[in-house]
Amino acid sequence: MNRAVLLVISLAVALGLTACSKFKTYNGPEVTEIFVFKQTRKMYLMHHDTALAEFDFDLGFAPNGHKEQRGDGRTPEGTYYIDRRNPNSAYHLSVGINYPNEEDRSRAKEAGVNPGGDIFIHGGPTEAKDRGRKDWTAGCIAVTNKEIEDIYAMVREGTPIHIVPANTKVPPDGAVMLTEGVELAAVDESTDMLTLEELAAVDAAIAANPGDSQIVTIGEEVELVGEGDPVE
Q1: What share of the chain is helix, strand, coil (3-state, %, to 5)?
Q2: pLDDT at position 30 over 80
Q3: Residue 232: how many CB atoms within 10 A of its CB?
Q4: Going along 90-157, which residue ranges are E strands?
Q5: Residue 43: which of 180, 210, 138, 216 has the closest Cα?
Q6: Structure confidence at residue 7 (pLDDT)
Q7: Which terminus of the chain has a smaller tally of CB atoms within 10 A, N or C?
Q8: CB contact at 8 A, 198 and 186
Q9: Average pLDDT score over the chain
């Protein structure tokens, strides 16, 4: 059984649904930080250096670059914190990000603009015009309604969230993680984790070949194999 399947099974065991409510309970390891990669549109809920869950997401209508002012359609970049939770969100459920922080407010003041705010991770679109459309938000990070139920249950206020710019391949602070839909075969078979150099090569290979389903790492080289091909 591959690691991606084990990750899904482990998460299903840790998350429990209360009756038919959208509010789930979570009894698994603590989510110690969140990584959001704009380049690959992947979000990872981490327990130290282990990925507990991963999600695809949409961004705002102007996804690249750091948010500078209200209405620019951008998602902030850098390290922030989850600072609030909204059980009555217009988008099913949501967890808030502490943008703007002091640095953002200072930068906006110097530029003479309103920095904006209300940046959340939330559920799917409510309007028909947004359904099926890529990057439909005003700057928030959007997942499906089912996925935000998991995130809402797992993530607590105070959790750091690292939003990594699209032109950055390696996450800050040495985090390493598994990637959805790929089989990672590290040189050291005793560990599921990759080095930063291997992760950078994997992330670049995924971005260049999004249709491939498996990645084999051999030293510092990365080889992509098509779906159904054996991993040796």
Answers
A1: 20, 25, 50
A2: yes
A3: 8
A4: 94-97, 119-122, 141-142
A5: 180
A6: 54
A7: N
A8: yes
A9: 75
